[in-house]
Amino acid sequence: MPKFIVENDFWTLFPHAKIGTVICEGIDNAVRDVAFYEQLLREAEKEARTFLDQEEFSSHPVIRVWREAFQKFKTKKGARCSIEALLKRVKNGHSIGTINPLVDIYNSISLRYGLPCGGEDIDTFAGDLRLTLANGSEPFVPLGSDENAPPYAGEVVYKDEAGAVCRCWNWREAQRTMLTEKTKNAFLCIELVDETRTDVFHRALNELADSVSRNLGGAVKVEVLDIQHKEMTILG
């Protein structure tokens, strides 16, 4: 059975972090109603404006904590947390486009709660999934590309036995493991580095699970990893 393991080198850098997971099994991710997901995103964009009330964009706590986190490990120049990228689009007046139901759902949760969310297709994993520091030799082809762009040594990554799955913690995902309309089993996650927002984190995690279950069927399982609970079985 594949596992998700958060390695000790990660906990050395981020001892107070929490990684919330929603494991989705037997879902139907085919697009049925584009208008529904467009509306979901538009409403989430409106709620996201509560995180854009600072005169200086990067000074809002939901962005600042991730800027500070990214300074603790080797990153590609210009790499930013996924929630910052989403909020910047909203700030600049650009709508978040629909992709597929799972991605639209987790993007809406990310916007509403100001937390980074991501997801991968479990059936594409090669062995266990790990959140750890890269050695720098992991193959990685980012979404929308066909060229290998491996992580730096010392970069926080999700990876499996075939290579990196997401670079710079939650910045850029791999083409190989992306969610598609054919995805049946999915690994979704929400990441927390700001301990003051633990209650918000748990609400977002539960709402993510409820929304997937309600709209896509299947079975969902919620589990949180922290320094006291460093690994879990993904399926089975």
With strands numbered from the N-terminus, the spatial order across the biggest sheet is 7-6-5-4-1-10
Helix content: 25-40%
Structural class by sheet pairing and helices: alpha+beta
Termini Cα gap: 6 Å
Q: Care to count the β-strands?
A: 10
* Residues in β-strands, percent: 15-25%
Shape by Cα distribution: globular
The largest sheet is: 6 strands, mixed
Number of DSSP helical runs: 6
Low-confidence stretches: none
H and E string: EHEHHHHEEEEEEHEE
Radius of gyration: 17 Å
Commentary on this structure:
About 30% of the residues lie in helices and about 20% in strands. The protein is built from six helices and ten strands. Strands 7-6-5-4-1-10 form a six-stranded mixed beta sheet. Strands 3-8-2-9 form a four-stranded antiparallel beta sheet, with helices on one face. α2 packs parallel to α5 and α5 runs antiparallel to α6. It starts with a strand and ends with a strand.
Could you list some keywords that capture this structure?
single chain, globular, 6-stranded mixed sheet, 4-stranded antiparallel sheet, 236 residues, alpha+beta
Helices and strands in order, then pairings?
Layout: E1 3-6, H1 8-13, E2 18-25, H2 34-48, H3 61-70, H4 82-91, H5 101-113, E3 117-121, E4 129-133, E5 156-160, E6 163-167, E7 172-173, E8 185-192, H6 198-216, E9 219-225, E10 231-233
Parallel strand pairs: 1-4
Antiparallel strand pairs: 1-10, 2-8, 2-9, 3-8, 4-5, 5-6, 6-7
Helix pairs in contact: 2-5, 5-6
